[in-house]
Design goal:
- This protein is an alpha/beta fold and 361 residues long.
- 46% of the residues lie in helices and 15% in strands.
- It contains 14 helices and ten strands.
- It has a five-stranded parallel sheet, sandwiched between helices.
- Strand 6, helix 11 and strand 7 form a beta-alpha-beta unit.
- The longest helix has 20 residues.
- The two termini are 31 Å apart.
- Bound molecules: 5-amino-5-deoxy-1-O-phosphono-D-mannitol.
- The site of 5-amino-5-deoxy-1-O-phosphono-D-mannitol has 16 residues, from helix 3.
Length: 361
């Protein structure tokens, strides 16, 4: 069932253009946004997004979208903190739970805490028959198909896609997005399957870079704006399956501590599309290079042209409009983790100490 792939994870990474195309056909047909009527954001006063692990990083990206498209205050939290903190909630609030399995114990407990306290509970899930899907007011399936690799890949990008369409609906419901802007964002989302296919062609060059990364003790990931949570996700993916210590940081945080770790043995992976904040990220990257850190710059043609001097390696991604770049750049982040693990000879699909579904706390 691996369809010629060595690992389920490799197969699931490669499936993403098809998975996203399926989800797009459902949620974003040519006729416009297709979301349930009851998912109405007009009277909501805040959104809480709650999840664990990779699903939490999907929530962290979505915070940028809900805030910028709908101008609605958003809080994000890992479920294990949310449930015990017993946060005050608004009767006009919406809580969104994101879970591939729909069975994660902490996320389910967080949902049960919210019952009767908020206006709407919503789940973004892969398993439509799961406990979380059954217990929310509105369940939105991500339609990614069964995910077997313990390291979540296609579920992450499909979660992002569904959250992106939700954020666009929120912007429309609240009159914060005008027709042309909405249409432009929809077009960008619809272009993702094609762009992802182009990104998947980086498989071979990434496999080569991974031979070097596999030697590292520590690896840092940097990103800004919606690419910051992607840096966190890239680091999580890498540590889960290659067992190399990795951390993600917001580029601007570098000089507040982590720069002390940089020397010539530390690869620093910079995820930086040529966007509004590109120059800021480049100056952080230059601080790394001044301390002899090995910079791997993932950017587009314009970004590489402007800033590749002095970097150790480059990955060229196609251009994409700023808000949705994390969906595209997830592909090289996943491939870097995958090939580094393969180069180290670890058990990619069943990494040590991890379970696919964490049903105990
Ligand atoms: O099934 P869930 O999405 O609720 O699972 C959440 C996390 O356990 C999961 O994303 C975990 O972090 C993955 N191993 C990440 O690759």
């Amino acid at each position: 069932e691996k369809a010629g792939y060595k690992h389920f994870m490799g197969k699931e990474i490669a499936e993403q253009p098809v998975v996203l195309a399926d989800a797009l056909r459902h949620y974003l047909p040519q006729t416009g946004l297709n979301m349930p009527e009851e998912l109405d954001f007009s009277n909501i006063d805040r959104i809480s997004l709650v999840a664990c692990g990779t699903a939490f990083y999907a929530c962290s990206v979505a915070k940028y979208w809900f805030e910028s498209f709908a101008r609605i205050p958003v809080e994000i939290d890992v479920a294990s903190e949310f449930r015990y903190r017993e946060p005050p909630l608004s009767e006009r609030g919406m809580t969104i739970f994101v879970s591939q399995s729909g069975e994660t114990a902490d996320t389910l407990a967080a949902l049960r805490y919210c019952h009767e306290k908020v206006a709407k509970t919503v789940a973004v899930v892969n398993v439509p028959t799961s406990s979380i899907a059954r217990e929310v007011d509105i369940a939105l399936p991500i339609m990614a198909g069964v995910e077997i690799g313990v390291a979540s890949t296609k579920a992450f990008t499909a979660q992002l896609l569904v959250l992106a369409v939700m954020a666009l609906k929120a912007g429309r419901d609240r009159d914060q997005l005008d027709g042309p802007d909405l249409a432009c964002h929809c077009d960008t989302l619809r272009s993702l399957p094609g762009l992802m296919n182009t990104a998947l062609a980086l498989d071979a060059p990434i496999a080569e870079l991974a031979e070097h990364l596999a030697e590292a003790q520590d690896i840092l990931f940097l990103g800004r704006g919606p690419m910051y949570p992607l840096a966190l996700e890239g680091a999580l993916k890498l540590k889960e399956i290659s067992y190399i210590h990795a951390e993600g940081y917001a580029s601007g945080e570098l000089k507040h501590g982590p720069i002390a770790l940089i020397d010539r043995t530390v690869p620093v992976i910079v995820m930086a599309p040529f966007d509004r904040l590109f120059d800021k990220t480049v100056s952080n990257m230059q601080e790394v290079m001044a301390r002899h850190g090995m910079v791997l710059l993932a950017s587009d043609a314009k970004g590489l042209k402007a800033a590749q001097d002095g970097t150790w390696a480059q990955l060229q991604l196609p251009e994409i409009a700023e808000p949705f770049a994390p969906i595209l750049y997830a592909v090289p982040a996943q491939l870097l983790a995958y090939h580094t693990a393969v180069a180290k000879g670890t058990d990619v699909d069943q990494p040590r100490n991890l379970a696919k579904s964490v049903t105990v706390e």
